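Comment thread on ticket #2218

A.B. wrote:
> Attaching the input chain for the structure job we discussed in standup.
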Amino acid sequence: MCKTQKRLVKEMLYGIQASKDVKLSNISRTLQEPIPLIKTEDRLSRSLSMNDLTGEINEQLMRLGTGKIDEDMVIAIDPGDLMKPYAKAMENLCGIYDGSKHQGANGYHLCQVTAANLEHNKIVPLYCEAYSSIPEDYPGSSEKLMEIITKVKAHIGQKGTWAIGVPLKLKVMVQKIFFLSKRIFGVPTFFNYAMADGIFELLKHSRAGPNQFKSRIGHNYDTFQLSLFPD
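C.D. wrote:
> Ran it. Output below, let me know if you need it in another format.
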């Protein structure tokens, strides 16, 4: 990043933490510059509109998070949305689906990737991006998610188990993700949850992780089997 971008990131992070708010007026107030408040707000607004730091911030998130990911963590990809019901002139404002009201709305698509251990006491953010489906180069919902997964996988490799928590185009998604990761959960049924809970209860007092109980089976040894009670 250039000097101006570094200053912008530094001031925004400080302002958000100091004001506990994301509104530019409150962020500007915490900076206490010897100029009218509106001038500081205009400067920050102008800098934000000129600089898209999404790629750089996510790159640093993945770089810092890679060393904290281990084989037994779950990598959750969570597509969502960012509603802007009162916005009229925001750039590339697109149509989204409001799941709480079960109707269409205006806003942006949102995708977050987060890693967590089975005890839920270690959370590692890896990626977060808000994007629009309006631009001509928008690849499509499934393709966009695959693009994000590919970026994260480039940093963490084969570590962790990917989890998809929403009913997307599963046939397409699972088929593509299979080539990216050797282990994946789709949308689990109650049986899957019950099995996972039982396996967790069996392993939680053990010092060994699931990899110690995993073996390859099948004609081409391309299938994994979890053997909790070896012969």
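A.B. wrote:
> Thanks. Noting for the ticket: The chain has two domains: 3-50, 63-212.
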